[in-house]
Amino acid sequence: MAEEKELELSELSFDQLNIKETILRGVYGYGFEKPSVIQHKAIPVLMSGKDVIAQAQSGTGKTGAFSIGSLSNVDETLKETQVIVLCPTRELADQTFQVMKELSSYTEISFCKVVGGTRVNDCISDLRKDPQVIVGTPGRIIDMIQKRHLYTDKLKMMVIDEADEMLSQGFQELIHGIFQCVPRDSQVCLFSATFPDELVEMTDKFMNSPERILVNKEQLTLEGISQYFINVKHNNWKYDVLTDIYNTINIAQCIIYINSKQRLNQIYQELNKDNFPVGMIHGNLMTREREQIMEQFRQGEVRILLSTDLLSRGIDIQQLSLVINYDLPIQKETYIHRIGRSGRYGRK
Ligand code: ADP
Ligand code: MG
Fold this sequence. Notes:
By secondary structure, the chain is of the alpha/beta class.
């Protein structure tokens, strides 16, 4: 058998990181035994109050790192919003929200999810309870801040997951707007698997001498992921090739990335007609439909999921063992994020 490197784990145990007892219980209860390298490196810096830019390969436990670090900073006696975690999509916000809630099962920390596509009135009434930790997407969060339903004057910490995406064109203005409403001295923490250099340069506008943590930057793709390409001469042969490889490879679950919604829809119809157990997700679906399909995919009821880049980042489904790029992504970073949906936490 070829020698493959295992996921690098830290030398330390979680006990040695000075994590609050109640949170530590949550960490072990969640099933984590030892910290990954990014967790070992980032948690102490997050707890020290310093700004952080952390980069580590996909699937190496960045969520755990910023969750444990930020939850440790919450003053449970202060019933005000102290931490905001920003995510690029509702699906990722959902997932992160669940993880953070579970990790804090043995604490009294209060949470609220603030995401788009939900009823504004529900959101407002949840925010009246002054949740200590908010996980959400930037559009709804800025809206709630501006309409004075979300108070940021006691905010200690802002975590931005998938930070390079969040600071790029599509989101930049929203993020900028949010920064204008948070106290100048709050701690800012950025996490991602990719950080183009020009982006790191622009962070000095809103960060205060951040500590940079890099884990294996030179080796962006994981050892456990094998990559293949099939040279298809004509676009309209792709569908046959797709069904061929699906029939030959015995896979647990698979995501197929297709760049355009229209094309995605078309392929969905065809696969459906050919009786493949297929589902689809993209930004034009209703929130309810998006939630339903995610649930079915997580449960394994749907084995093949067609997606736009909506799901290219952050989504963590352990049984996912094959990623197909029906189209090449437009940005090279996206490729890293897409394939990183498989090979989670050292899986092959
Ligand atoms: P990233 O954000 O770096 O891509 P995630 O935070 O989504 O990675 O974590 C990937 C997977 O690894 C998740 O399923 C998570 O539960 C698991 N994981 C994270 N940290 C640990 C740990 N210390 N021990 C065991 N599993 C872990
Ligand atoms: Mg992540």
